Hints:
Serine Threonine Protein Phosphatase 5, Tetratricopeptide repeat; about 0% strand
Amino acid sequence: MGLFDFLFKKKSLTLEEADKLNDTFIAKNPIPKDDENSMMRQAAKLMSGQQFEDSIELYTKLAENYPANRGLYQSQIGAAYYFLADYNKAISFYTAALNNGADKGMMDDNIWEATEALFKQTGEKAHLDNYKLLFPEGNYVKKAEKLH
């Protein structure tokens, strides 16, 4: 299912590079497995094409229509909000994704990335505390404490 997962595993990948990889994947796998896969491909293409609002809309429909993969789609909504620099919404969707089965390590990374951006934007230490509440043993607790 993770057509768009590569965005989160290689942090240095630009959206332009992701868009090219997305095109290559679809060219090599031109026939979607089912309606869900077809919608997911469209949503991923919108995301990598930097059409974030449209990708949010489609990922929202996917989350509603395919609850077994709700966590995956909520994580993608979180990513779209991250790219829109709406870090509070990104964290909210990443947290929902975590609660709906998304990979805990990936959500730790994503929530930290959004938390750190939010802290740099606002200077409010409460954001660092919120991260530590979500992930008391998280990969970035020491970094959060250092920034505090």
